[in-house]
């Protein structure tokens, strides 16, 4: 068996809840200095920026900062902090539902990404919780779309992350969502929607195509009034945007969806009329203790509880304030 390489711990602390970039120098190459390699490896970073990092002692090896002319050492690990982009602050709080020495379960608001990606880096649930709870090793056990609110789970220690990630990978977590969408009296519900979903890299919206189904969702109507329905959605698989695409395909697209059935451009600072989709609960058997676990969101969907305010451009409705649950 091939022995897994041991990665040394980072000599640099996090910055605003974001880990430093870690690079491993390839075992061979024509580079005389670390600087030569970084200029070639990071074409999106200006050479002047790399020079400035080295001059300031901000590029580190395991044994300390590197000098501007540091020789290339095959196999060495390097760390440095990337420039953090300017981001529009998401004006809604992440509420902690539960916290112990193993798990943090949060109630994420609409518009806040779960983890750093693309233009959303420090304005993410992970970065906020790391800072606010002083938990630099906090890691996501799974992810929610940026536009979806509700329950999302994190692990406190790296050694526990795989056990909880595997629950989601192996579909051993029962997830329920709520959505607000138009009510169609002619739509027969409940039903299970199955189809084939394709999500191409670099393309914002997924789409359906003929072929063997790779997605399935249970759709139930809980109640309706005034032309709107409140739905319970149970994903049986985990394709990207699955619930949103399935509801649109039924002819009842979720209110506030900027992608389905049509892509609508929204400004980064537009926090009105959020997607009316809520990750309402997670239920599973704890892989460490064997105990049943259930976590439920305290949030509501504004288009159902305050439809006029939502239609006029109101933002997310906050959940009721409560202290996070602690183990008994």
Folded structure, characterized:
The chain is built from seven helices and 15 strands. With 328 residues, it is an alpha+beta fold. The longest helix has 12 residues, at 158-169. It is elongated, with a radius of gyration of 23 Å.
What layout of secondary structure does this protein have?
Layout: E1 21-24, H1 34-41, H2 47-55, E2 60-61, E3 64-65, E4 77-80, E5 95-99, E6 103-108, H3 125-133, E7 139-140, E8 149-155, H4 158-169, E9 174-182, E10 191-198, E11 207-209, E12 215-225, E13 228-235, H5 242-249, E14 277-285, E15 292-296, H6 302-305, H7 307-311
Parallel strand pairs: 8-14
Antiparallel strand pairs: 1-4, 2-3, 5-6, 6-8, 7-8, 9-13, 9-14, 10-11, 10-12, 12-13, 14-15
Q: What is the structure about, briefly put?
A:
This protein has helices spanning 34-41, 47-55, 125-133, 158-169, 242-249, 302-305, 307-311; strands at residues 21-24, 60-61, 64-65, 77-80, 95-99, 103-108, 139-140, 149-155, 174-182, 191-198, 207-209, 215-225, 228-235, 277-285, 292-296. It is α+β, with helices and mostly antiparallel strands and 328 residues long.
């Amino acid at each position: 068996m091939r022995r897994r390489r041991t990665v040394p711990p980072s000599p640099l602390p996090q910055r605003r809840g974001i880990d430093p970039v870690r690079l491993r120098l390839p075992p061979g190459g024509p580079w005389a200095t670390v600087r030569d390699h970084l200029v070639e490896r990071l074409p999106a970073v200006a050479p002047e920026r790399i020079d400035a990092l080295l001059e300031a002692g901000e590029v580190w090896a395991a044994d300390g900062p590197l000098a501007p002319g540091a020789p290339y050492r095959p196999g060495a690990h390097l760390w440095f902090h990337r420039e953090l982009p300017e981001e529009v602050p998401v004006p809604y709080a992440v509420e902690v539902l539960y916290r112990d020495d193993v798990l943090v379960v949060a109630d994420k608001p609409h518009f806040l990404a779960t983890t750093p990606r693309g233009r959303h880096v420090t304005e993410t649930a992970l970065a906020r919780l790391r800072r606010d709870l002083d938990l630099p090793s906090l890691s996501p056990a799974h992810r929610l779309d940026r536009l979806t609110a509700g329950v999302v789970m994190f692990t406190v220690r790296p050694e526990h992350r795989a056990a909880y990630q595997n629950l989601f990978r192996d579909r051993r977590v029962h997830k329920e969502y709520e959505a607000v969408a138009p009510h169609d009296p002619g739509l027969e519900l409940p039903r299970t929607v199955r189809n084939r979903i394709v999500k191409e890299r670099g393309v914002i919206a997924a789409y359906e195509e003929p072929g063997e189904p790779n997605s399935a969702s249970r759709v139930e109507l809980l109640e309706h009034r005034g032309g709107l329905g409140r739905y319970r959605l149970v994903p049986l698989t985990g394709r990207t945007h699955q619930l949103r695409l399935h509801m649109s395909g039924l002819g009842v697209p979720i209110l506030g969806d900027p992608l389905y059935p049509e892509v609508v451009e929204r400004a980064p600072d537009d926090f009105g009329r959020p997607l009316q989709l809520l990750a309402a609960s997670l239920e599973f058997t704890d892989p460490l203790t064997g105990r049943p676990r259930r976590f439920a969101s305290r949030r509501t969907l504004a288009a159902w509880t305050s439809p006029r305010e939502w239609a006029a451009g109101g933002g997310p409705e906050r959940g009721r304030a409560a202290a996070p649950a602690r183990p008994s």
